[in-house]
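Field: sequence (string)
Field: structure_tokens (string)

Example rows 1 and 2, in order.
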Amino acid sequence: MLTLNDITKSFMQGFSRHFILRNINLTIDQGAFVSIMGPSGAGKSTLLHILGMLDEPSTGEYLFNGELVHKLNEKKRTELHREHIGFVFQAYHLIDDLTVYENLETPLLYKKVKGGERKGMVADMLDRFNMVAKKDLFPSQLSGGQQQLVAIARALIIKPQLILADEPTGNLHSNQAKEIMDTLKALNEEGVTIVQVTHNEQLAGYGDRIIELVDGKVEADYRPETVG
């Protein structure tokens, strides 16, 4: 599904070149649950943003479902992004002045889904995540865990092939974190490919594969059972 060939990300700093990612070679299959770990500054979020087409590599090739992303025009990249990729961020990124219902509806408006169909899809998500009673509340009226569930529901409503999660439990206490990770695991078991960035080894273990980045390079790539 996702293939990275010699991906490098760098920028000039004064007279020297600073590397964020160096020669990343990865293949992620449809239906995988991959956890990306590493210290701050290792390049984890940059890698996730390249996978999500929010950023471009300096050199190398990225193939999404066999298509070379850098060869696609901006319209086609945006289309792929909107049709197939859902994002979940540490900071939730909900729209503060929209209700839960309206936040869930927003991606469907971008996709120009018709009114009746939109209504049904939002109702399904509200029901699935037990949020029917909260549909008219604003993000500020929800707990952190509830906001993150809304963010996951919003990512899922477009029926993505891939969910990219950047520290999805970073602002949550342990019980809320477990609920979020259990939700992501259940989605993965339904066939959704998930790539998450996390600092937490226990949460990384929800995945079926762990990739460790150090100084922008893949230092290790293993199954969680091999930990310890």
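Row 2 begins here:
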Amino acid sequence: MSDTLIQKYATSVVRDFMVRAGDLKGLIHDLTKGELKELFVSRVLKSFLTSQFGIGSGIILNRRGQQSSQMDVVIYDNRIILPFIREQNIGVYPAESVIATI
């Protein structure tokens, strides 16, 4: 059975991510390498999500004030509660709006 246009596109997007991530192997600085991979993952995810969802990294905060550890990728729903603090890709996200983390 032949791949559909959507399957071909999705495969191409993921393949591009894998190539870009592989290109980082030569970098010595692990933090920079990790941050770039996070940006690559975020870009791939964003291409498949509707505008109601946002993607960033940071801390998740629940209503009791408990904080998560640093989350590399946070997917949240803009319709529920917007991030408490958000500068560029880094923020503090209310637990009620977080859909997934990586």
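free_text_note (row 2): The beta strands are 53-61, 71-77, 85-87, 90-94, 98-101.
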